[in-house]
């Protein structure tokens, strides 16, 4: 699962990437600093892992991860080849969710490509470019489908109607995710085309240090502007957090965060948000060798969850032994949970719950 970072040049995309990922991207105070996309793996912070580690004392602990892609800034005309963004819109098409960074801080030393700080305007500029890119996609597809529809092919005619609706929406500034299209039609005709504006989006308001815990007027404006989008808006002092990430010791980082009024980095909140945005949840395996968080789509069955570890686990699935996270913590060990009769045995139909601690029985 991947999330892509978009936004105007010089708004703090690479700085955000650096807060999140162990990979380091070049960030500097000039537009189009980023040319080649940066790809990084981000650990999903989860306090439950520390708790399980204390109880099980394993050799190693592996958190869940998501991939983040940081691309060149987009500008007006990007979809028509302006700037550098166009060639990298393709990288964004391959992601599963969008993190849209908006500049919400004043600072005369940091150039704004459109001359002033106005996150609502900036958001529209980016939206338009993404919509134009999607328009290319739908036009290409329509070309093909139209021909088949003309021959009287009913299926093609149905598809054409959906595509025309998308085209009309995009031409009038509506993103694909906001269009009134049935779930079935979406699954059948829309999803496979990987529209950028169909992906779930989270707005990341980049604020200055003083607004780290409170947000500011710009953030309020963004919230008001996207109120009907059903999208998450978060604010983060991206520049400051990137500086904190650079500090060597945990204690130092914690001290700086406390000075800011935070108990954990805002980036932790962001990653958890992105995880939700991607409709993902976590189950655990907890053995003495390894305590590990595994990522599954919400609604996954026990065999599907087993398949994340190994396809053989899914194919040869017999049953799952399940302990709810709370039970594991309350009773303190697997043995005690068993003694108390709280370990459940579940079959192929079981829908895994977030936090389940699982063992799989299978044959190969
Ligand atoms: N909240 C902030 N306050 C002040 N300065 C910031 C903040 N966030 C980022 N910056 C600064 O803004 C400049 C641009 O940041 P960055 O390189 O991350 O932008 P970008 O969006 O990746 O740009 P590009 O599209 O050109 O790659 C950097 O000098 C960075 O330190
Ligand atoms: Mg950059």
UniProtKB/TrEMBL annotation:
Say yes or no: keyword Kinase present. Answer: no
Which top-rank group of organisms is this from? Bacteria
Q: DNA-binding among the record's keywords?
A: no
Q: What are the entry keywords?
A: ATP-binding, Magnesium, Metal-binding, Nucleotide-binding
Query: What molecular functions are annotated in GO for this chain?
Result: ATP binding; ATP hydrolysis activity; GTP binding; metal ion binding; ribosomal large subunit binding
GO CC annotation? cytoplasm
Q: Which cofactor does it need?
A: Mg(2+)
Q: Could you tell me which residue ranges the OBG-type G domain spans? A: 1-256
Q: Which InterPro entries match?
A: ATPase_YchF/OLA1 (IPR004396), Beta-grasp_dom_sf (IPR012675), G_OBG (IPR031167), GTP-bd (IPR006073), P-loop_NTPase (IPR027417), TGS (IPR004095), TGS-like (IPR012676), TGS-like_dom_sf (IPR023192)
SUPFAM superfamilies with a match to the protein in the record: P-loop containing nucleoside triphosphate hydrolases (SSF52540), TGS-like (SSF81271)
The TGS domain, residue ranges = 279-362
Q: Which parts of the sequence bind ATP?
A: 10-15
Which NCBIfam families does the record cross-reference, listed alphabetically?
Answer: redox-regulated ATPase YchF
Q: Function, please? A: ATPase that binds to both the 70S ribosome and the 50S ribosomal subunit in a nucleotide-independent manner.
Q: Which family does it belong to?
A: Belongs to the TRAFAC class OBG-HflX-like GTPase superfamily. OBG GTPase family. YchF/OLA1 subfamily.
Tell me what this protein is called: Ribosome-binding ATPase YchF
Which species does this protein come from?
A: Arenibacter aquaticus
Q: Which gene encodes it?
A: ychF
